[in-house]
Automatic annotation (TrEMBL), chain A:
It catalyses: geranylgeranyl diphosphate + L-cysteinyl-[protein] = S-geranylgeranyl-L-cysteinyl-[protein] + diphosphate. Keywords: Metal-binding, Prenyltransferase, Repeat, Transferase, Zinc. InterPro entries: PGGT1B-like (IPR045089), Prenyltrans (IPR001330), Ptb1 (IPR026873), Terpenoid_cyclase/PrenylTrfase (IPR008930). Pfam families: Prenyltrans. SUPFAM superfamilies: Terpenoid cyclases/Protein prenyltransferases. Binds 1 zinc ion per subunit. This is Geranylgeranyl transferase type-2 subunit beta. Residues 68-338 form the Prenyltransferase alpha-alpha toroid domain. Belongs to the protein prenyltransferase subunit beta family. Its EC number is 2.5.1.60. Its cofactor is Zn(2+). Gene3D superfamilies: 1.50.10.20.
UniProtKB/TrEMBL annotation, chain B:
It is an enzyme of class 2 (transferase). Keywords: Magnesium, Prenyltransferase, Repeat, Transferase. Its EC number is 2.5.1.58, 2.5.1.59. InterPro entries: Prenyl_trans_a (IPR002088). It comes from the Eukaryota. This is Protein farnesyltransferase/geranylgeranyltransferase type-1 subunit alpha. It comes from Penstemon davidsonii. Belongs to the protein prenyltransferase subunit alpha family.
C-alpha cells in the first residue's frame, strides 16, 4: 500500500518522491536504565492512574481550587488515549476486551457514526477513536464498514467537515483519512483533493494551520503531516523548513513548545518529527528527561508540564513520545496512525 | 457553574419546577458494572437526565432551549447538547443576536472550547454582514487577555474572509505587534493580510515595505524568531532574491556587530551564502570575530565556518547545523576567498 513499516528502534519510513537522504542517526538517548522500570511500576501500581487510563475523568486546575471535570461526553476519546497507553506499556490485558468492544458498539449512532458516549451525537473525532480502539483489540471486523459515513463529509474543495453542521478543520481531514485507511476504504474519498486542501494550509514556516492562512500549531501540524504520510504525499512537506521550525520549538528545559514564545508541554510534536525523519535534529536526551519530569511521582501519570496535574491525554502523549524516543521497555508506536506498530502491521500486512 | 448560582439565586431542582412536571427524566446508562463510575454532581445528573428526555422526544420548545442553556453552563463541551440547541434555535426562529450575547457569557468561562466557537460561527454566518464589526470586536476583546488565542484567531480569519472588514486589519496587526513584538500569531495575521487582503494588492505590491517593517522589528529584538521567519516568507520560493536584497545582508551585519553569536543572524547569513550572496569584507570579519583561537575551526569556506560556529553557540541543535554543513552547495566550497562569482543556482 502506501506504507512500509519500522522495526523496533528504527523510525518508520514513509516513502516519498525525494526521500533517500536519511543517513545514520547517531544521537544516542542517554537515560539511566532504572528510569524505565520506574515509569512502568508507577503505571502498574496506581489505582488512580489505572482508572484515569481506563476512561477516567480528568482533572483541571481552576483558579478557585482543584475541581474535577467530568468528560462523560469525551469518553470514547479518553478510552482511546488510555487504552493505547496501556498497550504501549504492554498492559492491555488488564482490560476486559469484550466489555470495551460492546460498549464501543453501543456508541454507534443509527447514521453509522460514533458519539462520544452512548446516546451522543456522532462526530468523526469519535469515529476514529472507535476504529482505533477496535484495532487495538483486533476487532475491526465487528464494524459494518459500509454503514460508516465518513466519506460524505468531504467537501468539493477536498476539505472535511466534522459532522453534518459543517465545521471545517484540517483535524477532520486527518481523522477521516486515518479512519478510512484503517478500514481499507480510502477509495471512497477523493484523496487527491484531500491532499490538495491540506497543502493549501501550509504556512511560510513550513507548518500547517486549521484552515488556509491560520497559524502553524503543533497539533494541527501533526494532523496534516500524519494525513500526508498515510496518503503517500509527504513530498508536499518541506521537511527541512518544517524541521527547523520544530528544532526551534525546543527550549532550555528540553521540552518542546507548540508555538513560538509558548511554554513547553508534552504534546504531539514528537510524532511528526518522527514522521518527517528529523527527530535527530533535537536533543533527544533532554526531551526524555523533560517528559520524565512531568510525571506525578506518587500516583503515576504524566502532566502537560512539570508540577501540573496529570491527565489521560498528556499521559498518552508522554508515553507515546517516550516510545518514539526509543525508551526501553515500551512498545513501538506508529506515529501516523498513532497506534502500536504491531497493531498497524496486523491491519496492513495481514491481507 | 449554574446560571442561577452565578446570579446569586439558589437553583430550583427541575423536579420541583412546575413547567417540567410532565417530563419523566431518563437516567444515564453507564452499564451495570461501569469500569470507572463517574461521580456526577446531583445538579449535573438531574439536568442531563431531563436533557436526555427532551432530546429523545425531539422536543423543540422554549423550555428545551432553556434546558440546553443550563446544560451548557454545567458542561460547555458536550457536543450533543450544542447540536440539539441549534435544531431548537432553528425550529423556534429565535433572534440570534440574543444567542451571541449568551455565547459571550459562556466564552468567558471556557474560551478554549471548540463547540463554543463552532456555534458562534454558525450564528454569525446566519446573521451575515450585520455582525462583521461585532465579531471583529469580540475577538479583539479576547486578544486583550490572550493575544495568541488560537480559536479566536481562527474565528477572526473566517470573519474577514466570509464577512469582510479587512480595511483596518493591517493597522490592527501593527497595534498588536507594538504591544508585543514576539506575538507570532500577530505576525501570522500580518502575513495573512498582506497575502490575502483585497485592498493591498498582494505580496508583490507589499514586499518592499514589509521587508522594511521586518527589519525594523529585527533590529529592535534580534532574538525574536518571528520577524526573521517573516522576512524569509516575503521572499518565499525565491531565496535568491532574498540574497540579492542588500537590506537583508545589512541587517545581519548590524545585528552581528552588536551580538556576535546571534543564532538567527548567523542562520540568515548561511542562507544568503547558499544563495549566491557575495560576502563583503565587513561581513567576513564580523563572522570571523566570533571564532576564538580555542574553537579551532579549520573550515575553509565561510558557509562551513558559519555552521561550525552555530554548532558551538547552539549545542542543543548541533545535529541540525551538522546537516546544514553537509548541504552547502558544492560550488561554494572552493570560491572562498576571493574567487569569482560562480553561482548557478
Amino acid at each position: 500500500m502506501f506504507y512500509t513499516f519500522s522495526r523496533r528502534n528504527q523510525p518508520p519510513i514513509y516513502p516519498t518522491a525525494s526521500d533517500s537522504e536519511i543517513e545514520s542517526q547517531n544521537s544516542e538517548v542517554l537515560i539511566p536504565e532504572w528510569e524505565s522500570s520506574k515509569v512502568k511500576s508507577m503505571l502498574d501500581t496506581s489505582y488512580q492512574l489505572k482508572s484515569l487510563l481506563m476512561f477516567g475523568a480528568y482533572y483541571h486546575q481552576k483558579k478557585d481550587g482543584f475541581e474535577s471535570v467530568v468528560i462523560e461526553h469525551l469518553r470514547l476519546n479518553g478510552a482511546y488515549w488510555g487504552l493505547t497507553t496501556l498497550d504501549i506499556l504492554g498492559k492491555l490485558d488488564a482490560v476486559d476486551k469484550d466489555e470495551v468492544v460492546s460498549w464501543i458498539m453501543e456508541c454507534q449512532d443509527e447514521s453509522g457514526g460514533f458519539g462520544g458516549n452512548i446516546g451522543h451525537d456522532p462526530h468523526v473525532l469519535f469515529t476514529l477513536s472507535a476504529i482505533q480502539i477496535l484495532a487495538l483489540f483486533d476487532k475491526i471486523d465487528v464494524l459494518d464498514v459500509e454503514k460508516l459515513d465518513v466519506a460524505n463529509l468531504q467537501n468539493e474543495d477536498g476539505s472535511f467537515a466534522g459532522d453534518m453542521w459543517g465545521e471545517i478543520d484540517t483535524r477532520f481531514s486527518y481523522v477521516a483519512i486515518c479512519s478510512l485507511a484503517l478500514l481499507h476504504r480510502l477509495d471512497k474519498i477523493n484523496v487527491e483533493k484531500a491532499v490538495k486542501y491540506i497543502v493549501s494550509c501550509k504556512n511560510l514556516d513550513g507548518g500547517f494551520g486549521c484552515t488556509p492562512g491560520a497559524e502553524s500549531h503543533a497539533g494541527q501540524i501533526f494532523c496534516c503531516v500524519g494525513a500526508l504520510a498515510i496518503t503517500g504525499s509527504l513530498h508536499y512537506v518541506d521537511k527541512d523548513l518544517l524541521g527547523w521550525w520544530l528544532c526551534e520549538r525546543q527550549v532550555k528545559s528540553g521540552g518542546l513548545n507548540g508555538r513560538p514564545e509558548k511554554l513547553p508541554d508534552v504534546g504531539s510534536l514528537i510524532l511528526f518529527l518522527i514522521i518527517i525523519d528529523r527527530v535527530h535534529w533535537i536533543d533527544k536526551g533532554k526531551l526524555v528527561n523533560f517528559i520524565l519530569d512531568c510525571q506525578d511521582k506518587e500516583n503515576g501519570g504524566i502532566s502537560d508540564r512539570p508540577d501540573d496535574a496529570v491527565d489521560v491525554f498528556h499521559t498518552y502523549f508522554g508515553i507515546a513520545g517516550l516510545s518514539l524516543l526509543e525508551y526501553q521497555g515500551l512498545k513501538a508506536i506508529d506515529p501516523a496512525y498513532a497506534l502500536p506498530v504491531e497493531v498497524v502491521n496486523k491491519i496492513f500486512l495481514a491481507k | 457553574m449554574n446560571q442561577d448560582l452565578r446570579e446569586g439565586r439558589a437553583r430550583i431542582p427541575l423536579s420541583e419546577r412546575p413547567e417540567w412536571a410532565d417530563v419523566r427524566p431518563v437516567p444515564q446508562d453507564d452499564g451495570p458494572n461501569p469500569l470507572v463510575p463517574i461521580a456526577y454532581t446531583d445538579e449535573f445528573r438531574e439536568t442531563m437526565d431531563y436533557f436526555r428526555a427532551v432530546y429523545l422526544a425531539n422536543e423543540r420548545s422554549p423550555r428545551a432551549l432553556h434546558l440546553t442553556k443550563e446544560a451548557i453552563f454545567l458542561n460547555s463541551g458536550n457536543y450533543t447538547v450544542w447540536q440539539f440547541r441549534r435544531l431548537v434555535l432553528e425550529a423556534l426562529k429565535v433572534d440570534l443576536h440574543e444567542e451571541l450575547e449568551f455565547l459571550e457569557k459562556i466564552t468567558r468561562d471556557n474560551s478554549k472550547n471548540y463547540q463554543i466557537w463552532h456555534h458562534r460561527r454558525w450564528v454569525a454566518e446566519k446573521l451575515g454582514t450585520d455582525v462583521t464589526s461585532n465579531e471583529l470586536e469580540f475577538t479583539k476583546e479576547i486578544f486583550l487577555e490572550d493575544a495568541k488565542h488560537y480559536h479566536a484567531w481562527s474565528h477572526r480569519q473566517w470573519v474577514l474572509q466570509a464577512l469582510g472588514g479587512w480595511e483596518d486589519e493591517l493597522a490592527y496587526c501593527d497595534e498588536l505587534l507594538e504591544d508585543d513584538i514576539f506575538n507570532n500569531s500577530a505576525w501570522n495575521q500580518r502575513y495573512f493580510v498582506v497575502t490575502r487582503s483585497p485592498h493591498l494588492g498582494g505580496l508583490e505590491a507589499m514586499r518592499d515595505s514589509e521587508v522594511a517593517y521586518a527589519i525594523k522589528a529585527i533590529l529592535a529584538k534580534p532574538e525574536n524568531e518571528s520577524p526573521w521567519r517573516y522576512l524569509r516568507g516575503l521572499y518565499r520560493n525565491n531565496l535568491n532574491s532574498l540574497a540579492e536584497d542588500p537590506r537583508v545582508a545589512s541587517v545581519c551585519l548590524d545585528v552581528l556587530m552588536n551580538k556576535r553569536d546571534c543564532i538567527h543572524a548567523l542562520n540568515m547569513v548561511l542562507d544568503l551564502l547558499c544563495h549566491c550572496y557575495q560576502p563583503s569584507n565587513e561581513m567576513k570579519n564580523a563572522i570571523d570575530a566570533v571564532v576564538t583561537p580555542e574553537s579551532n575551526l579549520s573550515d575553509l569556506n565561510l558557509a562551513a565556518r558559519v555552521c561550525s560556529i552555530l554548532q558551538l553557540v547552539d549545542p542543543m541543535r548541533a545535529n541540525y547545523w551538522e546537516w546544514r554543513k553537509s548541504t552547502i552547495p558544492v560550488h561554494l566550497e572552493d570560491i572562498d576567498p576571493g574567487m569569482e562569482k560562480q553561482c548557478v543556482v
